[in-house]
Amino acid sequence: MGYRERSWWGWGHADEALDDAACRRLAERALRPWLPIDGSVIPPPPDPLLPAPRLTPPPALAETFLGDSMSRASHAYGKAFRDVVRALHGDLPNPPDLVCRPRSEPDVVAALDWAEAAGAAVVPYGGGSSVVGGVEYRGEGPWVCLDLSRLSRIAEVDDVNRVVRVQAGVFGPALEAALEPHGLTLRHFPQSFEFSTVGGWLATRSGGHFATGPTRIDNFVEALRVVTPRGPVESPRVPASGAGPDANALFLGSEGALGVIVEAWLRVQRKPAARAKATIAFPGYSQSLAATRELVQSGLRPTNCRLLDPMEAMLNAGATDGRARLMLGFEGPDAVHLPAALEIVRAHGGVEIPRPPGSFREAFFRLPYTRDALVRLGLVVETVETACRWSRFEALHAAVLAAAQSAAPAGVAVVTCRFTHVYPDGPAPYFTIVTPGRRGAEVPIWDGIKAAVSDAIAANGGTITHHHAVGRDHRPWYDEEHSPLLRATLRAAKRTLDPGGILNPGVLV
Amino acid sequence: MGYRERSWWGWGHADEALDDAACRRLAERALRPWLPIDGSVIPPPPDPLLPAPRLTPPPALAETFLGDSMSRASHAYGKAFRDVVRALHGDLPNPPDLVCRPRSEPDVVAALDWAEAAGAAVVPYGGGSSVVGGVEYRGEGPWVCLDLSRLSRIAEVDDVNRVVRVQAGVFGPALEAALEPHGLTLRHFPQSFEFSTVGGWLATRSGGHFATGPTRIDNFVEALRVVTPRGPVESPRVPASGAGPDANALFLGSEGALGVIVEAWLRVQRKPAARAKATIAFPGYSQSLAATRELVQSGLRPTNCRLLDPMEAMLNAGATDGRARLMLGFEGPDAVHLPAALEIVRAHGGVEIPRPPGSFREAFFRLPYTRDALVRLGLVVETVETACRWSRFEALHAAVLAAAQSAAPAGVAVVTCRFTHVYPDGPAPYFTIVTPGRRGAEVPIWDGIKAAVSDAIAANGGTITHHHAVGRDHRPWYDEEHSPLLRATLRAAKRTLDPGGILNPGVLV
Predict the structure, then answer these.
(1) Which end of chain A is more exposed for a tag (fewer CB within 10 A), N or C?
(2) B275-459, which class in CATH?
């Protein structure tokens, strides 16, 4: 594979972005029926030219620092809607002064030492795919983006213990490529897979592609190694321990605020051989919810249990009957359980129908490119996700739809919902919201919708995030969701590990 | 069920303890062939008479306090070998000054407030089944045992969300009895099940009876409510969240040192209908290990995967052929996977043999009574457990056997090993050690063996505890196992929640 340029402002590889003509085709074919858009396309931004950095790299680490405008601009934001639209408009008021790309753990240590002495904030950065403002510093003083992508070594693939020792900067495809010759896989496939790193997954407790069972990155962690401003922390490399609070739990979800995850020991597995899939249509949404609940409470473990509400089914699975769809799948030894699952769904009026053409998984990984095209077409387009108990879900679903509609200034928003994960006690619904924007006002429009929707989620028993992390955008609701005393213990941990408060200030604590 | 008296010095119900004659029969039939014992039986201790308490209960809470010798003596220790033998000898130098039995959460709050003002240490106590010195205060000043068994309300059995809301003092059988009419079960069965509480399970991250899948109490926790000296902490009642570090993780395994768990929301399930079991003999221990490893790495999930080493197979499964035994079981939808599992074990030379007579589970729950009889027969008898990677296990097994043998002053110790839990990256071996004691020197004899064995475990990549918790007995190895900085964050959490340091001093931090 030759080198392919990454987009500095949008998702993924620059050469995979939709060009102007493709954007216009998308508008004509897919959007006009639903949304009032004029079909004009915001041009891609010119190369950025930023003011000079306020920091000078230390000579000993000069080789690891970048200070050019393109490097700094491409590390200024994550990849949320509000990031892409701001970059598209050249709106980059607070880019990193420097980008540091350590080659080794000692480089990380040296960079933190230097930053603490220099009074610079440090924002750890994996693939930069945050959609919650996790990698965007919003404070005053100078800051450094600590891009960990050169920590890319896979030191050991241990087939006896089914463990891989991997540095934090390894991207999804590189990890799977290293495991493939051993017949192994991590089986962790977040939507950002191609452009996110092991360290980013761990720091944000990333959710995988599978609906049940081991899918969140937490499930695959045996041990971690973390560099903090006060020294290293490493957890024991044992399959399980009951010795005190879980030794990995403080850093899983620490979002760069407590330390820099530099290495992990992750559990890998053989690729499952068998697979069994089905698509089910239901007479109504309530029946589909009851069926999905019974299915996940039955002790069966579908790898895929993606319930699409009628709007999502129409837009993303071509369902013209206005009915919900359940995309069901089992893998490995569990493939034998599909008939038992179908028996459950049939009891709730579910009917097996032909599978829609095309690969969801392929479309899933391409969606962010389409999103960028929609942004260029002037739409406000973003996703919101949560998890709640089954008994709260119908009210939460209705409240999110109502909140998005009434907060959309155009008075019209397309809101769709699917389940990404399901648990015995409740689903993890994932909403996509699309509404026309107003050139230059896209960010406040989205922020208004986001606030209304987040309030609706909180009021209906949902968490502010099931797998997108907290970052800066979710802070107000995160702070409400957790007991003040629990948050005080996090602040105490932060003071212990990062007394200078240099690590990702504004995130979590 | 009428009231049955609990033994104040030994395990469980007083009327189930083996009497002198039964102890002698046990010696003749089961022990003489293996161990040099003289057959004399230590008499049960007389009722204790303790010096007056150094504390006076606050009048407002007088109804919740007990100060009589029997109440205090029965709360002085847990139920480890060293606890039972000391109580048997009337060796109770540091019993609680008072036992407090709060009726409600406000009582817990008031008790903590009073204790902090009175300068008394507080040791939270569930069923008192600790085997690691978790409920035995070893400091100087006065102390109160906070017995939570009156927090025994099961407020809600929620069949829609499959969640039960339960107070911390509920014992295993009471919880299952409340769930049974709903066709539900928690499916968490530690060996202490009958005499341990929900709060104790949570505070010690108790391990259940099943070998794989959801079995540790952590797996069943949706949310917790904890009273700390600085106020309450409650985690969100959602099926899953990626918002920051896991909100339950700080208190799971906190062993009463960070707060008093008063209530929990636990995930329950339907009782599995199907079951499939098999017993397998192997030509050698190495083959049995390879088979077990492949089995657990295959993606099959046996509920039971108890590999007995040849000594354990001989003593506890009547195996006279000197070969290892694997007790294998699948439940629920997974029952169909037994043939696939047998195919794997056969490839390693495993042969299915008739199942030994009797119920392991029944014997398992009765073992602690037998243990008490062995103590009265003058034996040193205790268990040690850990978890390590597969690649470390054979050396760890050999090292534990050698360490126990060479530390046993009689020069002879019976050491057996079985797996209680198995993970893709390694097993959780559980060792039973029996050796002749010397009247009055039992505790130092065991402490010497324990130290040697724990050193052997640590040197061979094992954790100091897979599911018995840290307590006071495991502290030196726990402190070595974890990074000093991680331990500093625990101390910081402790200072935040319990600045007076009244909660279970000496445990964890």
Answers:
(1) N
(2) alpha beta
Q: The tokens of B466 are what? A: 């897979």
B463 touches chain A (CB under 8 A): yes
∠ CA A155-A158-A160, nearest 5°, is 170
pLDDT tens-digit map of B171-217: 999 999 999 999 999 999 999 999 999 999 999 999 999 999 999 99
Report which DSSP code applies to B171. B
Going along A101-162, which residue ranges are E strands? 121-125, 143-147, 154-158
- The end-to-end CA distance of chain A, in Å, is 41
Domain locations along chain A: 44-147, 154-270, 275-459
Using one digit for the tens of pLDDT, what is the confidence trace for A175-223?
A: 999 999 999 999 999 999 999 999 999 999 999 999 999 999 999 999 9
CB atoms near residue A433 (< 10 Å): 26
Distances, alpha carbon B89 to alpha carbons B383, B438, B469, in Å = 21, 13, 26
Mean pLDDT over B104-123 rounds to 98
User: CB–CB of B418/B429 below 8 Å?
Assistant: yes
Contact by Cβ (8 Å): A272, A183: no
Number of CB atoms found within 10 A of residue A2's CB: 3
pTM for the full predicted model:
0.97
- Is pLDDT above 80 for B148? yes
Which class in CATH covers the domain with range B154-270? alpha beta
Structure tokens at B245: 């570090």
E strands present in B126-244: 143-147, 154-158, 163-167, 184-185, 221-228, 231-234
Question: Residue B429: its chain A contacts at CB < 8 A?
Answer: none
In A, minimum Cα distance to B479 occurs at A243
Which of A202, A238, A394, A508 to mutate against chain B (most B CBs within 10 Å)? A238
Q: What is d(CA A284, CA A124) in angstroms, rounded to the nearest whole number? A: 46
pLDDT averages per 10-residue partition of chain A, 509 residues: 81 94 88 79 94 96 97 98 97 97 98 98 98 97 98 98 98 98 97 97 97 96 98 98 98 98 98 94 96 96 96 88 95 96 98 83 83 94 98 98 94 93 98 94 97 98 98 98 98 98 97
Q: At what angle do helices A81-88 and A442-459 cross, to 10 degrees?
A: 170
- Quote the pLDDT of residue B359: 73
pLDDT of residue A1: 42
Name the architecture of domain B48-147.
Answer: 2-Layer Sandwich (3.30)
- Choice between B362 and B301, residue whose per-residue pLDDT is larger: B301
Four-way CATH pick for A44-147: 3.30.43.10, 3.40.50.970, 3.40.50.2300, 3.30.420.40: 3.30.43.10
Among B295, B425, B496, the residue to mutate for chain A (most A Cβ within 10 A): B425
| pLDDT surpasses 80 at B32 | no
Calculate the CA B151 to chain-centre distance. Answer: 21
Q: Give the integer Cα–Cα distance in Å for B242 and B226.
A: 21
Cβ B122 vs Cβ B144: under 8 Å: yes
Q: Do B424 and A162 touch (CB under 8 A)?
A: yes
| Residue A284 backbone zone (phi > 0: left; psi -120 to 50: alpha; other: beta) | beta
Tens-digit pLDDT profile for residues B390-419 = 999 999 999 999 999 999 987 889 999 999
Q: State whether A389 and B238 contact (CB < 8 Å).
A: yes
- Residues contacting residue B272 through CB under 8 Å, at least 6 positions apart: A299, B331, B332, B333, B335
In sequence order, the 6+-apart residues with CB closer than 8 A to the CB of B435 are B35, B379, B380, B381, B404, B408, B410, B412, B413, B414, B445, B449
